[in-house]
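ok so heres the complex, two chains, lmk if somethin looks off
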Amino acid sequence: MIHSTCLVQAGQISGETEAALRNQLAEFAQRAFAAPAQINWIVVPVGSGFTAGKPSTSSVVSMRSTAPLEQTTREALLRELSDVWMAETNCSHDELVAVISDPAID
Amino acid sequence: MPLYLCNSAAGAIDDAAKSKIAADITRIHCDVTGAPPQFVHAFFLENAPHQLPNGMSAALLGSIRSGRTNAQKAQIADEMAQSIHIHAGVDLEEISVTTVDTKASWVMEGGDIFPEPGEEAAWLAARESKHVASSEG
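and the predicted structre for the whole thing:
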């Protein structure tokens, strides 16, 4: 299972786009990690998101890999994940933070 | 990155306080670490899926780049807790501020892998050059 968290600003992403993104993220997780995605979708309420202290239009998408990744692999996956997100939302690079982390070391 | 997520009990932090706390979070993080303000995200949630620690009314979790010292993290925690206390009126004993380290190399922002601490100026300059080139292209 790939744990994924999406943080989006309220009113920025329609229900239709959210559904499409969920499907795209699930497909990405299968392609990248051969595992299903468990998506935690969090909407930041109006007036509650700030970047540089000003109202934010930024989204965050993060996934935790099932195994440590080589950096070249991670960078390619981050680029693909960003492309997936931007294609569905029409946001710019500057409005997206993408994270692919290694598994936690307990 | 950094991403500061503030989870609070419903009504504990009103919108006016959020704006002031977000400004403080940005200023404090930049003062302590030297990071540029445009890197700092502060999002406020109420009763978010990650539950509030026992007895807490507000919990601020900062995902910050690896490489900060324990003294820097302690200063960030102290000053941000004070900000929430001052602007939202929440008792200091009911405010939790913690940070977790995230490797810069795990993060892509603005289409590029995030810079290591201390390499921000070159990263921003390269990003600016890309913007100029794309606007001219």
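quick notes: Residues 2-101 of chain A form a domain with the Macrophage Migration Inhibitory Factor fold (CATH 3.30.429.10). thats all i got rn
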